[in-house]
Write a structure and sequence with these properties.
- The chain is mainly alpha-helical and 253 residues long.
- It has 2 domains: 96 residues, Arc Repressor Mutant, subunit A (Orthogonal Bundle); 137 residues, GntR ligand-binding domain-like (Four Helix Bundle (Hemerythrin (Met), subunit A), Up-down Bundle).
- Helices cover 63% and strands 3% of the residues.
- The chain is built from 11 helices and 2 strands.
- The protein has a two-stranded antiparallel sheet with strand order 1-2.
- A hairpin with a 3-residue loop joins strand 1 and strand 2.
- Helix 2 packs across helix 3, helix 6 runs antiparallel to helix 7 and helix 10 packs antiparallel against helix 11.
- The longest helix is centred in the middle third of the chain and has 24 residues.
- It is elongated, with a radius of gyration of 22 Å.
Length: 253
Amino acid sequence: MTTPSTSGTGVLSAPAPGAVRTRGDRLGTAVVASLVDDIVSGRLPAGDTLPTEAEIGDHFGVSRTVVRESVKLLQDKGLVLIHRGVGTVVRSPQSWDMIDEIVLSALVRNDESLVILDELVTVRAALEREMAITAAAVRTPEQIEAIRSALRAMERTADDPAAFSAADADFHDVVMSTSGNRLGRAIVTSIHDKARTTGRYHGTTSAQYTAMTLDEHRAVVEAIEAGDRAAAGSLMYAHITGSWARRRPQRDE
């Protein structure tokens, strides 16, 4: 299988064996994912023109109809702009829908500089700070017990990094649920789930870091239980940003 040329310097990556001809993949999900990855990674840079429908179809082994639908989806995600009679041009990152599941996954996967993960942590910390503030204002005895139960699960799994990470995520979800902020919770869950797929996000861990993390969570619980909104918000923000700073694989000078 040959790689089609483009009018610029970008090239399409080879599709994974069998990735395209998936049962029920009527809209070319695998084609979209591959093209998104090529654009996000810079293999197809901004300003470049995509190969023709025929070339893309030959490359992935799909019909022109599938290609056409896939390219329309790319346009919906803000990655390309279709110019009738001219071609499909790759757009700059400023136009991308970075909350889109496929785009965000590709951004995290290709985030060698950790810029995206840094931004993700900043957004997550800001949203969870506000939800912790609200949780401290509206918590019920039953919700406090649910939060404490989530904390106990973290304590039980402190010696198992994978289980501890899952329990940690559950703890934050319980706090967000307590706040009642459904949109904030959905955004954080989406971006956090994508971040957790890469080892760079988990970074360096140690028994000392785990102990610090538990202490920070206990402080958040106490603030929420006491109804101290300011403390709950500041402690949650400090925990999320501080935890990332501790485990971040690469540090700026």
